[in-house]
Design brief:
alpha+beta; 942 residues; 30 helices
Length: 942
């Protein structure tokens, strides 16, 4: 049946390709024939896709076609509050019963269930097992109860009121203030500026139970709900569960109408200037909001493809501009995407505007877009963009059937949310080939003009609020646009690019030794130049290959000033290209290829990482060889890099949360200066000669490198590319054993407090550190302890005290400390009301005391074991896991395939092991540093 449907589709599309510019483009799109979909008698829609990746898992999504936009005046914030209450008690699962049950089967709040609220919709997601019928049934019961039987228990409601207020406090930074202004200007005259999902503090503080029940009763009903099911379960069985648990929800008689709230068209162009003392970079842009037709016909899909082509071609022009002309911004882009209220938004934006050059930046950006409108895109640009677009769709087609269910569920949710037809990748590719084969520059250029010229624009600027940063005025912005529109602009001239990445192919070396680990299937090859290559073949994703290369020796090997230069090297290489190619030229040369690599230097090692597909594997090797032998350190490349990265360094050096992170990095390891974050002063002292020397030191000698490839590669092809490219990388004298680093844990107690930013929240971290063992059993005990600690912190500080929205613990290991011993640090992080900081910190210390004393129920241990088992079962089906763990083990005392014993290690975990780890590692009584960041300018939640 499936094959017949695809043949019919191909016949229809072959006819369509000859008629694409006629009314035939109104042909309705055909949904994925493998998807089971329909509507229950009560009005609820369902969408079911069977997918076995990962095995024994099911992803559920519940879409509610109601968000904050439908709230009454006395309900501002209650759409979001309702989402919070969903797991706090239903008719069949009182109070915390649903949370406790999900935790007991390994479905944790951080790794299995969650909810979110938008202006236009509410979303719930749940991951449940399919290999246990009771757990499967219970998962459907919990989600069905959320759909129509939330209890709004008065006690739970009052406890959650504090949590929701803390979330509002948590989000009172500059980004929310910017969003407020943007929505006010872009959606002026609509309901949206009055209905932010976060709500109003006075409403959240004072509403009564009847008010939120009224919201729930009005909007949580079957005709406004869709259930999405993707996973390892036959479709018929999934449908039976839907009918059993959701089909019994009664339809609503005479329901309250769900109105659609439109966005009024602008009567004239308008401008917005936003400045904020907490902003430390500037951006500019133009925005158009216009009515959009959902993706339901071939014509809709054609317009979508053309918009993607426009975005691709304009972005490439900007890359060339940045690489050759030093514009007054670091990057820019054009994009069209769904906005609020079923509208489409087009954005023309530039980031990293140079200080004092906002007027010039506006002029350059608008001129480049006007160049498109006056002269259009060229045929050569279009052909490259078409090749890139089709290659991406081919890759989606090739990996179809091996995409994780969570990813498929999100794609399907997106279709439901925006009313799009869910096609499978084969359908999309077939249709795109038919459409793009007929597309000429005139069609793309016509759409670009149609999208923008007849629309009124919002011109916007946002940047820092300081004396030396003078923003443009609204009149200036509108005047610039009017002036540029009167200019006669020269057409764009496309540049030719070399046909190959490499000007000369290296002569193949050889593999001198091969071995294999039978239990794990990991193979090791030693190449003729001494480079070691490890490989693990998988079939998790049909079209994915990951690689990681690593060598000992990092930035801590250098003098202090140069150590920061080393940390900039990875970004430099990414932005500047190699060989004959600057970054813009390299992107052109990679047209139709899916291959990328990145470089990184940390305190004790330097790495290369990347990904590709089987079809483009040789391209990946050519990139490795190109950057390893022909990195660019000329004056132009360095100028492009500094212009591109400079604005972000200004932001990193001054933004409040990043300043806090830098302070934390400082105190974590005895204030070691090398472990501070990079800042604008380090950036301003950067020299190209220093970068080149460090590159020569670290990536000019591959004697100590190991390469790891994981994925669906052809082994014979992988061997040939290793011999041709890796065996020709330069090698020198091995670097030998790492010197001991002066990085060590701290001892004693200290409190560091400072003020930064304008929010309603304090940011607090409690941190301890010490030496540890690096064997896998000890590492598992620390991991389990960290999970238990986060669970108890959420329970004690968030749920019982209503004290925070965000609280969690995290631990970090460093293998090369000052005396050669591995060390750890463990940090507890929270955002809270500044007036409650001492109270909540005391509760955190009490929680630590209880864990060290073993005052917790055995059920928590079982929860952690269940969750770890689920996490590792899922991880074992991903290339990311094997690439990460094998690469890490190659430079540790552990066996490289020690992960095979993880199920046994999880089973062995017990309360004594975790409590012993708590006694040893929760050493806050001996080693405790507390970091507190209070707002300079506290703002009220009101």
């Amino acid at each position: 049946m499936k094959a017949a449907l695809l043949v019919l589709l191909a016949i229809a599309l072959s006819f369509l390709s000859a008629q694409i510019s006629t009314s035939m483009t109104s042909i309705p799109l055909t949904p994925d024939p493998d998807m089971l979909h329909g509507t229950l008698a009560n009005g609820m829609k369902y969408y079911i896709v069977q997918n076995s990746v990962p095995a024994n898992r099911l992803e559920l999504r519940l879409h509610i076609d109601a968000g904050s936009i439908v709230e009454d005046e006395d309900q501002l914030g209650l759409a979001h509050f309702t989402e919070h209450m969903a797991f706090n008690g239903t008719k069949r699962f009182t109070k915390q019963a649903a949370r406790d049950y999900l935790a007991s089967i390994g479905v944790g709040q951080l790794h299995g269930y969650t909810g979110s609220t938008n202006f236009d919709y509410t979303k719930y997601q749940l991951r449940i097992p399919t290999d246990d019928n009771e757990q499967l049934e219970m998962g459907f019961m919990i989600l069905a109860d959320i759909a129509h039987q939330i209890s709004f228990d008065p006690e739970e409601l009052e406890l959650e009121r504090g949590v929701v207020l803390e979330e509002l406090r948590f989000r009172t930074g500059w980004s929310l203030r910017l969003m407020d202004q943007y929505v006010e200007h872009s959606y002026r005259g609509s309901r949206y500026p009055e209905r932010f999902p976060a709500g109003k503090a006075d409403v959240i503080s004072s509403f009564d139970r009847d008010t939120i029940v009224r919201f729930y009763s009005d909007w949580y009903r079957p005709d406004l709900q869709s259930i999405i099911i993707v996973g390892d379960l036959p479709k018929a069985e999934a449908l039976a569960l839907v009918e059993k648990h959701f089909g019994v929800i009664p339809a609503r008689n005479n329901p309250r109408p769900r109105e659609s709230y439109s966005i009024p068209a602008f009567a004239a162009n308008r401008a917005m200037v936003f400045t904020d003392p907490d902003l430390h970079f500037s951006s500019i842009g133009l925005n158009w909001v216009y009515e959009n037709t959902p993706l339901r016909t071939a014509d809709d899909y054609q317009n979508y493809l053309l918009r993607e082509l426009i975005s691709t071609m304009f972005d490439q022009r900007i890359r060339e501009l940045v690489a050759t002309q030093n514009p007054p911004f670091s990057s820019a882009a054009f994009a069209s995407e769904y906005g609020y209220g079923e509208c489409l938004e087009s954005d023309l934006a530039a980031w990293g505007v140079s200080e004092g050059k906002s007027v010039e930046a506006f002029t350059v950006l608008i001129r480049e877009w006007e160049r498109v409108l006056q002269h259009g895109f060229t045929l050569s640009e279009l052909e490259r963009a078409k090749v890139s677009q089709l290659r991406m769709l081919e890759a989606e087609r090739d990996k179809h059937g091996s995409v994780p269910s969570a990813e498929v569920a999100e794609q399907l949710f997106d279709c439901v949310r925006f009313g799009k037809i869910m096609m499978n990748p084969e359908q999309q590719l077939t249709l795109a080939r038919s459409i793009l084969g007929e597309v000429e520059p005139a069609a793309v250029n016509s759409l670009a003009r149609q999208m923008t010229q007849d629309k009124k624009h919002l011109l916007w600027y946002y940047g820092p609020q300081k004396e030396e940063a003078i923003p443009p005025t609204e009149d200036q912005m509108l005047g610039i646009q009017a002036k540029v529109l009167r200019e006669k602009i020269e057409p764009y001239v496309d540049t030719e690019i070399p046909e190959t990445l490499l000007s000369e192919m290296p002569k193949a070396g050889s593999i001198v030794k091969e071995s294999v680990r039978k239990d794990s299937g990991i193979k090791e090859w030693i190449l003729s130049n001494g480079v070691r290559v490890y490989s693990k073949q998988t079939d998790f994703k049909k079209d994915e290959i990951l690689f990681a290369a690593k060598s000992p020796g990092g930035y801590s090997e250098y003098p202090l000033a140069q150590s920061f230069d080393a940390r900039f090297l990875g970004d430099y290489l990414y932005l500047t290209g190699a060989g004959e190619h600057d970054r813009a030229s390299l992107v052109k040369a990679l047209t139709g290829k899916i291959a990328e690599i990145g470089f990184n230097v940390d305190s004790s090692s330097h790495q290369i990482n990347g990904s590709t597909t089987p079809k483009d594997l040789e391209t990946l090797f050519q990139l490795i060889y190109l950057f390893g032998t022909q990195a660019r350190f000329d004056e132009q490349s360095f100028g492009v890099y500094t212009a591109t990265i400079g604005p972000s360094m200004e932001f990193i050096s001054n933004e409040a949360n990043l300043v806090f992170a830098d302070s934390l990095a400082s105190i974590r390891w005895q204030r070691h200066p090398m472990l501070r974050n990079k800042n604008i002063n380090h950036f301003n002292s950067l020299e190209p000669s220093s970068l080149q020397q460090i590159h020569r030191d670290l990536f000019g000698n591959y004697a100590d490198f190991t390469f790891l490839f994981v994925g669906s590669f052809d082994e014979d092809a992988l061997k040939e590319y290793c011999k041709t490219y890796l065996a020709n990388l330069p090698v020198g004298k091995k670097k030998g054993k790492l010197e001991a680093k002066a990085i060590a844990p701290f001892s004693g107690k200290e409190t560091v407090s400072f003020k930064k930013g304008s929010t309603a929240s304090a940011q607090v971290t409690h941190i301890t550190s010490g030496y540890c063992e690096m064997d896998t059993d000890s590492a598992f005990a620390r991991l389990a302890l960290n999970m238990l600690l986060t669970r108890k912190l959420l329970e004690n500080i968030r749920e019982r005290m209503s004290g925070v929205y965000v609280i969690y613990s995290q631990y970090e290991e460093i293998e090369h400390s000052g005396n050669g011993r591995p060390a750890y640090s463990l940090a507890i992080n929270m955002h809270c009301d500044p007036l409650r900081e001492e109270e909540l910190s005391a509760a955190i210390m009490a929680t630590l005391d209880s864990l060290r004393a073993g005052y917790y129920d055995e059920s928590y241990v079982q929860e952690i074991k269940a969750q770890l088992s689920k996490v590792y079962e899922d991880a074992f089906g991903t290339n990311e896991y094997f690439c990460k763990v094998i690469s890490k083990n190659l430079y540790s005392p552990r066996e490289i395939d020690c992960y095979l014993q993880n199920p046994g290690r999880i089973e062995k975990l017990d309360k004594k092991i975790i409590t012993d780890a708590a006694k040893r590692h929760l050493s806050f009584d001996k080693s405790h540093r507390k970091l507190v960041m209070l707002p300079e300018d506290p703002i009220s939640l009101e």
